[in-house]
Amino acid sequence: MEAGIFITGTDTGIGKTVVTAGLVAALQQQGYNIGAMKPFQSGAVESNGRLLAPDLEFLLKTTELVADGYDLMNPVRLKPPLAPSVAAEVEGVEVDIDEVESAYNSLQQQYQSLIVEGAGGLMVPLAENFLIPDLIKLFSLPVVVVARPNLGTINHTVLTVKVARQLGLEIIGVIINGLKEEEAGLAEETNPELIEELVDIPVLGIVPYREAIGDDPEEVDLGKLIIENVDLEPVIEYLD
């Protein structure tokens, strides 16, 4: 396997980017030369005549990553907030997987290891006959699954892990993200143990919700948040 990990999720909008940025920041704080990649960004926004990737912009604000190599970190940017394959069809462009692989290989030469963030959930189509699992296999990376904390997450997480395994992917563990501690009930308390029992992989940590992340992400030390709430040892095993 390559040095690094791939971040996927049980759904869209569950904080994969927050977890990705937090892991990058945490590992940078511990002295690792960590790079990041968001190969596919739909819902890109235009600013000053340039198309920007919101997820990559968040990473640049909250980690020590710099904008040099922007097109390597995010080779595919599409405006429609749709599955990348659909967004590309709407825009009338063809996704070049070879270009994505070339960008990945270039980044691998620059960093000790990479944290790569997917798009949406596990079975999102990126190009014709090319889904997220195909990208993970192309990059030869193990997977961390990001899940939400509340009711329904057991079903989504178990399905994601079981399908990933059936497709031959290696799963490191699950990170539960966005726990609102003041609202947590019995479901939030029991979900982690049940997930571990049902799929026999560890829940690496539970990341609490922080409202400031959405309002002013630069004011939140995401690295510290991850270090305090996530077991990084299983991830570090895949960095060299």
From TrEMBL:
The active site is at residue 38. It catalyses: (7R,8S)-8-amino-7-(carboxyamino)nonanoate + ATP = (4R,5S)-dethiobiotin + ADP + phosphate + H(+); (7R,8S)-7,8-diammoniononanoate + CO2 + ATP = (4R,5S)-dethiobiotin + ADP + phosphate + 3 H(+). ATP binds at residues 13-18, 55, 117-120. The keyword Isomerase does not apply. The gene is bioD. Transmembrane segments: none annotated. GO terms for cellular component: cytosol. This is ATP-dependent dethiobiotin synthetase BioD. It comes from the Bacteria. Residues 90-117 form a coiled coil. Homodimer. Substrate binds at residue 42. The lineage of its organism: Bacteria, Bacillati, Bacillota, Clostridia, Halanaerobiales. InterPro entries: DTB_synth_BioD, P-loop_NTPase. Catalyzes a mechanistically unusual reaction, the ATP-dependent insertion of CO2 between the N7 and N8 nitrogen atoms of 7,8-diaminopelargonic acid (DAPA, also called 7,8-diammoniononanoate) to form a ureido ring. Keywords: ATP-binding, Biotin biosynthesis, Coiled coil, Cytoplasm, Ligase, Magnesium, Metal-binding, Nucleotide-binding.
